[in-house]
Amino acid sequence: MLRLGKPISEQAFAELYARYSPRIFAYCRRILGDYDRAQDAFQETFVKFFNSAQQEREMTNVPAYLLRIARNLCLNMQRGQKGHVSLEEYHLPLHSDMSHDKKELLDLITKSMEQLPADYKEAFILREYEGLSYQEIAELTESSLPTVKIRIFRAKQKIREILAPYVADLSQH
Amino acid sequence: MNQQTKPEHIDEQLISYLDGELPIEQEDSMFQSLASDEEDARGTMRELISMRNVIPHDIEAFTPPPAAKDAVFSQLGMTSNSTVKEQSSWKRALLPLAFLALGLAGGYGLGDRFSNNDEEIMQLMRKSSAKGAVAPLTSIGISLQVPTIVLQQAAPVKVIYRDRILNTASVTPMITLPPIAVNQQSNAPAVDEIQTMTTDSKPADQSPIASSEVSSQSNTNGNNIQDQVIKETERIQIGNTHAVYPQFWIQLRNMSTLQSPEFSGIREQLGIMDNSRVTFAWSLGEHFAVGLEAGREPFVLEYQGIKEDRPFVFNQYSPMLTGGLFLQGRTSALDYLGNSRFYAQAVAGGSEIGILGRFGLGIAYPISDAISLQLGLEQSYMQFQFQGNAFDSQKLDLLYGISITL
Q1: Are residues B271 and B364 in the same domain?
Q2: Were A26 and a residue from A148, B61, B364, B376 both cysteine, which residue would form a disulfide, CB within 3.0 to 4.6 Å?
Q3: Residue A154: closest CA among chain B residues belongs to which residue?
Q4: Judgement on whether residues A151 and A102 belong to the same structural domain of the protein
Q5: Looking at beta carbons, which residues of chain A come within 8 Å of B72?
Q6: How open is the CA angle B259-B262-B263, to the nearest 5 degrees?
């Protein structure tokens, strides 16, 4: 039997945190760019989520609900601080087990994302980082399905354009 | 990277395909494009796959700072390092052990309380004498001397009449009959005479007579008296006199759940064997038994979890196998309750899904030497794990059944 909307216990919250915190942080981190602001948004997301869950609000899809909270917080933060994050901020140390090529490619992708319009960037992050379907992205961003499809397509095209020289260089070697 | 030369719709198809969004009717045309001479399409596919493969390695983005977790949990008044940890094994065993201790303490406590009731036994003896059970003593001039009956606690006592050993229990309060006082005014034999006669008439293979033992006389009157005393003693000490420990017995019980967690689902239809239990036990003394029990019974299970990325609360009411170590403490037979005994018992064990502890109180009413009826209440506690978190279920049962001594 499935019963939803029950106040969340501490144990269940811990389980949800362990399960979804990487995805939520990735969203905040890549949307906002700035590490400290991303951490603030991330923390606030889980606090708001817990408080909402305690009020027995209906939640049929926890990750989507978390993302919705994170998205609103990130949008507010972006409105509060219009300045762009410099590309250098995206150049952060990556996992040491990765090959140099992969590190470089990832670095380029994250930098490319910053060149995208906000809508395209978000659609790309939600698709590639969060693994949401087009329909889920449409619901979350309150957009139509064709719009989401176009945004993702354009975002990937744009990134590919930015990556083209690098890929060409790789293929030459 | 020849976006200009390649039809855009092929890129669109490739992206949609990798995202799992391409309608199945368009897959054929996409694969045809890939298989044709459109090298660009294959190149695009490789680029998209590379992009997709590298993003999960964005560890920096997917790793929330540890400080963030502490901050979130402390902000919510929780401890970040204890909530998802499993309980250590000793902590999980604590409750069943507590149940065991409770059962033992309860059983011994009840047993001691009732078995120490000297006055009660004295009254029983007086009552017996008033009914004439030992009247022939007075008829031959021997006063009954009921007040001289000595109660001995926790001392090995044997009451021997000729070659009959009535009681060999060593830790049970016993009734010992001292040498019978003689009414000098009657024509009854004096104490010395009785002892002399006893000594003279003692068979060669008979046990020696201790000061606390009563021996028999060979004359008819003496036999009658002694037989009646034996009978009365046996009646008073029913349940104790012939017990030889350890004593094996089986308990068969059914139960009805009186109280359990609220269950909002549909209860399964249970058969009679889905709420039953059997216990194989050994009485190690009058007040203590140990054994093993097994059964099948339902518990209401309620646990929260995550399934397909959705939180849920699962309710279940299904019978499951249970079993464990059984310990029982019980009172002496209570004459005024038809030789019934109160008991306290505890079980520590497990079920198919978790650890289990029980504690119960009840009464056993003997309908024969070997069979008694049981009625009691029992509180059960079961703890189980789901997705790394501990959940529990408790219930209160009414137990009823029989106990058969073999």
Answers
A1: yes
A2: B61
A3: B12
A4: yes
A5: 17, 43, 46-47
A6: 110
Are A119 and A166 contained in the same domain?
A: yes
Are residue A49 and residue A118 in the same domain, yes or no? no
Number of domains in chain B: 3
The verdict on B370 touching A (C-beta cutoff 8 Å) is no
Enumerate the H helices of B266-404 as residue ranges.
none
- Inform me whether the C-beta atom of residue A55 falls under 8 Å from chain B C-beta atoms: no
Range of the domain at B229: 118-152+168-236
- CB-CB: which of B1, B59, B75 is closest to A47? B75
**Cβ neighbours of A98 in B, within 8 Å:** 57
B76 vs A47: CB contact, 8 Å cut-off? yes
Do B174 and B134 lie in one domain? The reply is yes
CA distance A27 to B64: 11
Q: What ipTM goes with this model? A: 0.80
Using pLDDT thresholds of 50, 70 and 90, give the confidence band for residue B363.
very high
User: Domain range for residue A59?
Assistant: 1-85
- Listed in sequence order, the residues at least 6 apart from B124 whose beta carbon sits closer than 8 Å to its beta carbon are B236, B335
Q: What is the pLDDT of residue B87?
A: 53
Instruction: Output the six-digit token pair for B2.
Output: 């020849």
Q: What is the pLDDT of residues A111-125, one digit of tens each?
A: 888 889 999 999 999
Give the range among A94-98, A157-161, B13-17, B221-225 with minimum mean pLDDT: A94-98
User: Which of A33, A52, A85 is the endpoint of a domain?
Assistant: A85
Q: CA B319 to CA B352: how far, in whole Å?
A: 10
pLDDT digits 0-9 by tens, A25-74: 999 999 998 888 999 999 999 999 888 887 765 667 788 889 999 999 99
Q: Look at B149-158, B216-225, B306-315 and tell me which has the smallest mean pLDDT.
A: B149-158
CA-CA distance, B293 to B250, in Å (whole number)? 9
Per-residue pLDDT, averaged over B189-207, amounts to: 42
Chain A touched by B48 (CB under 8 Å): yes
Peptide bond into B319 cis (omega under 30): no
Counting the structural domains of chain A, the total is 2
In the predicted structure, residue A143 carries a pLDDT above the cut 80: yes
Q: Classify residue B251: in a domain, yes or no.
A: yes
